[in-house]
Write a structure and sequence with these properties.
Elements (H helix, E strand, L loop, with lengths): L1 H15 L7 E4 L2 E8 L2 E7 L12 H19 L4 H6 L1 H11 E2 L2 E2 L4 H21 L2
Antiparallel strand pairs: 1-2, 2-3, 4-5
Helix pairs in contact: 4-5
Length: 132
């Protein structure tokens, strides 16, 4: 319940900001980086580990990660939109899992990320055709 309330507050904060304001904000100890693409908002929040006083995350690096994520999703789905995300949420999670592991960005190469998704989709189509 607390996490849901925090997420809602952060989303409201991001939505209420004008386009002239920067895409970084700090809220309750979190660094929040967001970027708007048409009607979609992509939001990343980070918090320092308990042994650190300051959050070492680079805001520009996180902004670049969001941009890379959107470019990868565009390459995968054409031009990404809400419906692509809603109806193919499992694939979107798989794509994100290919890029981030345990809170760390592990892959940024679009070709490497999409190769696994393409393989998964090809195998799924093979399995579907076997049962027809």
């Amino acid at each position: 319940a607390e996490r849901t309330a925090l997420e809602s507050e952060i989303i409201r904060k991001c939505l209420s900001r004008s386009e002239l304001q920067c895409s970084f904000l700090e809220y309750r100890g979190y660094k929040v980086v967001y970027r708007r693409y048409a009607s979609l908002f992509f939001i990343v929040g980070t918090k320092p580990s308990p042994e650190e006083e300051e959050n070492p995350e680079n805001e520009l690096g996180l902004l670049e990660f969001i941009h890379n994520l959107v470019e990868t999703m565009d390459r995968w789905a054409g031009s990404i939109c809400e419906l692509d995300i809603m109806y193919q949420l499992e694939q979107v999670h798989f794509l994100l899992d290919e890029m981030v592991m345990n809170g760390c960005i592990v892959e940024t190469n679009k070709h490497n990320i999409l190769r696994h998704i393409d393989l998964m989709e090809r195998e799924s189509q093979k399995a579907d055709s076997m049962y027809r």
